[in-house]
Amino acid sequence: MVLKRKRELKNDGLGFIADKTLRADIKIALGFASYLIRISAKAKYYHKRELRRVVILYVASVVEALCLFLLRQKGLSKERVDYKYAQAIKLPSGVIMPSGKNLVIALQEKTNPFLPEIPFFDAINTLQSEGVVLNTLADKLHALRKKRNSQHLYGRTLSRVSTTDVNRAFLVLQNLFKTIQKI
Is 35 helix (H, G, I), strand (E, B) or coil? Predict the structure, then answer.
């Protein structure tokens, strides 16, 4: 049984990911997304919509994890700038600030963010600006990110997930895999 599992991990197309936990999590997420697609074939219309929505969430999570993986592999984590101890400054008379605005002074602190704290948007932009992913792939990554972000229960009536959206998500994932394998 253990030998079979080791062989499966080596032949799963994810061998480029040395982190066994990440590789296993990605494999499970993709397997579950595949399962959802299969059961959606027999589901009622409104269940199909929900299943497609969940597939988008899972595929986008895998893509985001792979983007963070690429950032770590390339050592591209950017510094985060935090501002602490903000204090409003009393201005001399005659100096006018726009209504509702205050001038403040704060202590600026630069830190390296914990990888999972890097927003998907920033990860994509960093990979694009550093030439790790092409502009066309970055645009598709952002489209997937936006589709995922539009699936909150409040307001998602404005953005349904179609079969085409699911197919596009898997194509983005496939293109990202190809990019990673070239590196």
Answer: helix
Given a contact cutoff of 8 angstroms between Cβ atoms, the answer to whether 23 and 12 are in contact is yes
| Residues whose CB is less than 8 angstroms from the CB of residue 110 and which lie 6 or more positions away in sequence, other chains included | 79, 80, 81, 82
pTM of the predicted protein model: 0.78
Main-chain dihedrals φ then ψ at residue 159, nearest 5 degrees: -140, 90
Q: Which CATH superfamily is domain 2-77+116-182 in?
A: bsu32300-like (1.20.120.580)
pLDDT (tens digit per residue) in 75-91: 887 777 888 898 988 88
Q: Where are the domains of the chain?
A: 2-77+116-182, 80-111
Here the tokens at position 173 are 């994932």
What is the C-alpha separation between 53 and 167, in angstroms, rounded?
12
Q: C-alpha 167: how far from its chain's center?
A: 17
